[in-house]
Structures are given as C-alpha cells and as structure tokens.
Specification:
Length: 263
Amino acid sequence: MKYIIFALILSISIHLLTFKTFKIKNDEIQDSPSTSKTTKKSAVNYVRLKSTPKQVEQKKQTPKKKQIKEEIKKEVPKKKTIYKKVTKNQIEVAKKREVKKDIPKKIEPKPSEQKEVTPNYTKLNPTKLQKDTLENYLATPEEDVELLDEITQSYIKLYGEEYNSFTKVQKVYLQKNLKSIGAITQKYLRYPAISVRTRQSGMNIIEFTLHPNGDITQPLITTSSGYEALDKNTIRTIEIAYKDYPRPKEATKIRIYVTYRLY
C-alpha cells in the first residue's frame, strides 16, 4: 500500500513539473518581439523528464494484487478433515439419571378422646309409624260431604250409595285426595291425534283400585265418552299418572271423570 501511494505522489509531481515548464516557455515566447502573435504547432518544444533509477526500482518492486493473493494461498496450506470410523460397540450411551422419589412421611394421627353422644331423637319404628298414622286417620272426624269443595263433591257423587259402605279411613282419604288425583290425571292427559282431526270431545268415567304400595288394579271405563279413541286414551293416561298419586293406608276404589274438550 505504501508503494502505491508513493507512485501516485510521484506521477502528480511529474505532471506539475511538465505543466510549469510549458507555461514558462509560453511566457518567454510572448515577451520576445521577434516572435509573432500566432505560433505554429511545430514551434512548441516538449521536455521529457527522465525518471531516476531509484523510482524505476520502486515501480518494479511494487507487486500486483493477484500475485499477493497467490503467495498468501501458497503460504497457508489447507487442513484436511480426517473422519474416523466408529463401530456401535464404541458408542457410549448416556446413562439415565436416577430420580430419587421423596417418600412422604407418615403422620400418625393424635389419639383423640371419643365421647359418646346421646341422640336427641328417637329412632322411628315403621310399624309404629303406620299405626300412628292409622290412628290419626281414625281420630280425624269425617267431614260432611256438603261442606267439601265443589270438585271433591262432584267426584264423591260418582260413587252414589257405595260411598257409605267405605271405612272411615277410606272416606277420609277420598275427601282429602280425590281432587289432587283428578288434577294429576288431567296434567298427564294428551289429546289423541285422530280425535283432533275428527273433532271428538266428551267425558268418560274411569274407576280402579289404588293400593298402599302405589299400584293400581282393574282399570275400567264405567261411562263411555262415545268415542273408543278417547276411552282407550283415558286408560293409558291412568297407567302413566298413577305413580304420582298419593298412597292410601288401605286399598281404596278411585272413581274420577276425565274431560275432553276442543277449543
């Protein structure tokens, strides 16, 4: 790099010297009276400067870039990568780390003093409870039919004189629950599709025996509505709704009416 800078300075100085000599000669020609204003091209003299032997030696000594790169490549030898063959037996597999599990410490419960607690209630005896409820039924006075609500009266009238043959327990059950049995039946009632298309309506009366365990037996249509589809639908409704009926203490005959009405 130093040689290149030196060569540039030398070339600039040579150009400046030639330009200066050329300017001096022009001034001398203009000052002399013998010379005319216009000069011929052949009259101009050029001076060639000779370079010193030192400068020539310096120019010869400046190497080119390509030569420098080649010399650097020759000096730095390439390192060849050497690969070694490794067999499976020589490969060492890293051993798994043993994980130490923390064993939880057993905490022994402190002995606590157990105190006997005396219950504040008495255990219920099912047989005694059944007797008590039966006695309550017998103790409750039988109400007059005329003092009952209109819906219960309408259901009791379906029994006729047979109502007087029932026991006191059965009569009390019918007076308290006939209205709710009729309401539960109407809740499960669904109008048959064929009856809707043919515009069938009416009322039928059904009776069945309701047992203390909640089962029913002998469902029967005592009074028909005049349509077979409506009568069959009433029996199907009773067979679904009986699960929600209040259970009696004695097997009791239930007789209710079911109304079909299209609006």
